[in-house]
Specification:
Layout: H1 8-22, H2 29-36, H3 50-73, H4 78-95, H5 97-102, H6 109-112, H7 115-128, H8 138-157, H9 168-184
């Protein structure tokens, strides 16, 4: 890519592509500059440092994932929306492994405060509104969904399920059925942190 075409957006997009090909852990300014055919110093006019580069990839991934989820849950509710939400995560992880890895890191403040992060949170809550759960409990339910989806996808990506039948697809569908069942029977709000 010629240097004249570099912008902050194109640098971040190139970094995301590089992370998908080479692995997120291999993403450095030096490696990105080599990939772009420029001097490392020329990247500093577009990204402050490596942390900013990684945050940029994380925010890009959040935005792209949010777009997939929006399509997957549109017009759906409860179990169907849950499946759309979860499948969008799994598909994204398969198609964009470096970007997915960017979502597993501790994000910087700019990522946490981003529009993309707010949209993703709102999408989780939109799915939860299809269940008999009070909004006071949405944080807990969101954490359960995130832990289950991310945990399953991470184990699947590291071949954690590859050594025993049946195929992980069967377990994935069972996990989503179980989540749907849990959300339909969500426990009542706790009283002073202790369930009755």
């Amino acid at each position: 890519m010629p240097r004249a075409n570099l912008t902050s957006s194109t640098v971040i997009a190139a970094a995301a592509d590089l992370a998908d090909r080479e692995g997120f852990g291999a993403l450095t300014l030096t490696e990105l500059a080599r990939h772009l055919g420029v001097q490392t110093a020329s990247l500093y006019s577009h990204v402050r440092d490596r942390a900013a580069l990684l945050d940029g990839v994380s925010e890009l991934a959040l935005d792209e994932l949010g777009g997939l989820i929006a399509t997957a849950i549109a017009g759906r509710s409860a179990g169907d929306a849950l499946v759309g939400l979860a499948d969008a995560h799994r598909t994204y992880a398969r198609e964009y492994p470096g970007r997915w890895a960017a979502l597993q890191r501790d994000p910087g403040p700019s990522v946490v405060a981003s529009t993309a992060a707010a949209r993703l949170s709102a999408q989780f809550w939109a799915v939860l509104r299809g269940y008999p759960i009070s909004e006071d409990e949405f944080v807990h339910a969101t954490r359960l969904l995130g832990a289950t989806i991310n945990g399953f996808v991470s184990l699947e990506r590291s071949s954690g399920f590859a050594h025993r039948a049946p195929e992980s697809e069967v377990s994935w569908r069972r996990a989503l059925d179980a989540l749907d069942s849990i959300l339909r029977r969500w426990p009542p709000e706790s009283m002073n942190g202790v369930h009755k």
